[in-house]
Amino acid sequence: MISTILRAKHWQLFILIFGLPFLVYLYMVYQIFSTFSHLETREPDPTIIFGSIKYLMGFAFISMIVYWTWYWSVGVGLRHKIPAEIKTSPNLFKVFLLFPAVYLVVVSLFALSLIGQISTIEPGTEPAINPLIFTLIIPFHFFSIFCIFYCIYHVAKTIKTVELQRKVTFSDFIAEFFLVWFFPIGIWILQPTINKLTEKEDQDDFNEIL
User: Rounded to two decimals, what is the model's pTM?
Assistant: First the structure.
């Protein structure tokens, strides 16, 4: 899987991570406007909107898997190309990458459960939701944001370290940091660089065989 992600083209990753969910989002918006445009002739059907949201969350979940796999592939899969004398442990990166992934899965399942409750309750009633849940979500949410920024830092640093083959400072990879942060744009620049690093590895292996 790691090798597949590292060799994937930028447009392939863009379609999987952003293209497909965006198309489902456009369809959901169309369903919403279609529902409200017929209010004069029929009662609105909220189940159509909630059904579209479920599809959107499903595609978003697939995109999240690809997105997190890309982080893992770069942050862990390229480590063997870093000189041994400057190589650091990836354990903290693994933990910080795992936490927001699990958090997003739990929140997504909670949101789906909440949508299911809202779509089935009788008019004039409210879904039974414990306010304590939202109180617990807030600290987990902020810690997840911190974890994500650390992962962005680690991935950007790994790319530049492999590219320069020396110890780097933040000023060396600040451009990569923002490219990873603004991933829809950055993937078009970062992935070709990763492809070249991977192709160079393949060429080196081939030369060793010869």
Answer: 0.78
